[in-house]
Amino acid sequence: MSKTTMRVIPCGSFDIPGLELWLSKLAGKGLRYLTTFGPFACLETVAPVQVQVHLEPIQGPAEENPELNALYEAAGWEFWGLFRNDFFVYATADPEAAAHTDPEALDWALRRFFRQKLVGGLLLIFFNFLLLGLYQNGAIWGIDLTWLHHYPLDALDIWPILPWTLSLIGMGLLDLAYLLGLVHLARYRQRVGSGRRVTGRRGIGWLTMAGTLVLLPVVINCIQLIAGQDYRPYDLEGSGFVTLTELEGEDVRLSGDPMYNMDYISHGGTLLDPESWYFQQYASFGPDQSPSGVPHLEVRAVRYPLEVLAELRVDEWSGILTNGSQEWIDLGPVEGADQVLYARRAERTHTSEITGKTRVFLPGGELILRRGDTVLYADYYGEQNLPDHLDAFVRTLNSL
């Protein structure tokens, strides 16, 4: 019973002599070529046989050509299938068999094939601009490097740095592999035309393989964006999130503006963008009153693929104190959370140098909780003491 297996194609897509030699060696080891799948070749386990393999450039549609197969069969060649959309694969046990007897016909076929691949390179260039353009906000020259240096995880959340970087590396590898393939194809034409010995080169196929692997998460990320999976909000009711009413009491009157009083949890994330949550609530304020002058609560949370990243995010958040906040106090692990940090905020006033008006900023505090790979940050302005409501924030963390 035959079995199928896969091998990384080590040669460039257009390295005809290299591919021919590689496929013939595989046949000698009992692996007969079937088809391709991306950077892989699908092979069938058979009895080892010494064969000569020939790749015939496809001049028309990428489909089996019965007339061409009949001509090769009459000359002792067996059709094995298509190699991507570029070549027909033929094999013969006769080491002296010649696939082409007319050098002019071969040169014409190779010249036309080379031109086709040059045009195909334009499609690759278009895909470069399309993919890098999609994540252009993550280009390193458009990022605040100071922020990236001091708060790298926050920067990765704000800008699509990771998908842009992977796109640049992956497309760079594919571009290089394609360019080297064209160079080898041009040299192959010259050597065949002059009657010189033709040899293949390995290594380019591994560039294609590496580029494909690097781009795979980017492609998945793009599919999630197109499918709208990057933003998945859900209702506040039943979410388990702590609310301003829970902190201030039932007597507090919440703002009627949905921008300041969310009745839902903003939630999203993709493969290359950590899963995140955001929620805020403000007490009611008048038209001449600043939102910062009433009790309000802001909660954000992030889940990372590795716990060490969550620990680093705690370090980043605890390296910042908002206006009026005092030093961070480590409350240690509590039931339901591995880390808890608290910074108390004192009431403060500010007098504008322009208007001369004095504003009073409420006291409050900041709270950071971590459980495993998930981090929660709460910023509260009001008269309540956040550690007194720690169980509500632990509940919120455990609901994520």
Could you please describe the fold and organization of this structure?
- The protein has 400 residues and is of the alpha+beta class.
- The chain is built from ten helices and 16 strands.
- Strand 2 (31-37) and strand 3 (40-45) form a beta hairpin.
- It is elongated.
- The mean pLDDT is 87.
Task: Please give the alpha-carbon distance between the first and last residues.
Answer: 50 Å
User: Main β-sheet, in a few words?
Assistant: 8 strands, antiparallel
Q: Which regions are unreliable across 5 or more consecutive residues at pLDDT < 50?
A: none
Describe the oligomeric state of these chains in a short phrase: single chain
How large is the share of residues in beta strands? 25-35%
- By DSSP (H or I, 4+ residues per run), the number of helices equals 10
Q: Strand tally, please?
A: 16
Q: What is the helix fraction of residues, given as a range?
A: 25-40%
Order of neighbouring strands in the sheet with most strands: 7-8-9-10-16-15-12-11
Instruction: Please tell me what the overall shape is.
Output: elongated
Classify the secondary structure makeup into a structural class: alpha+beta
Written as H for each helix and E for each strand, in order along the chain, the element string is EHEEEHEEHHHHHEHEEEHEEEEEEH
Rg estimate, integer Å? 32 Å
Average pLDDT metric: 87
